[in-house]
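Contributing new records

If you add data, match the layout below exactly. Sequence lines come first and carry their own label; structure lines follow with theirs. Keep one chain per record. Anything else will be rejected by the validation script.
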Amino acid sequence: MRIATYNVNGINSRLPVLLRWLEETKPDVVCLQELKAPQEKIPEAAIAAAGYKAIWHGQKSWNGVAILSRSAPIEEIRRALPGDDEDTHSRYIEANVGGIIIGGLYLPNGNPAPGPKFDYKLAWFQRLQQHAKTLLALGSPVVLTGDYNVMPTEKDVYKPERWVDDALFRPETRAAFKTLVDQGWTDAIRKLHPDETIYTFWDYFRDAYGRNAGLRIDHFLLSPEVDKRLLKAGVDKHVRGWEKSSDHAPVWIEVKD
């Protein structure tokens, strides 16, 4: 089974790129972030024509998350992260797909930091930590994947000295990610590629993609039941170079059925 995550940065404006990538790689399950479209504007027909069932949680102009499946049924569990009934941002969706609980997430950016947006990011991280602990306690196969908006270590960012005050790289953010992982999750990319320079995001400015001046902010965290089935993990970096592509590239893992 191939599971992928992709921050599409606007599903309608990037639809040709998304469909081309789906046709090229045919992942079994896909988590999408930054749909930037309200619930009724998701291109369900085009996704279905590509061979995928889908559930999504849209939001006008911002955020938005979805889960796509090529063959296995999608049994939706929730479409919001527990812990704050007043949080209306579309940032989390969870389903059972083919016997694996898939949590697709778009963690807040948090800039400028310090400030209210950074406080919201850290509070959201705390809610994620609590829910992740609950999921681990199930003893079921679980995958938490998406755009975490955090570079966990200096090897995950081009010229880290330029990012020390950014919300994605501040000590509080990196500590929150480490606390999450230390619950018992496996960072799939780093398990299989511990020392490689691997990025998942390249800004549109200053030829960042051409210079490979990127960030690794899209992650797969695996419960022990999935970790022991992990075969491969990688980034479809070339997709970032396509015309009118997102500033993120798709990230994927392969696990034994």
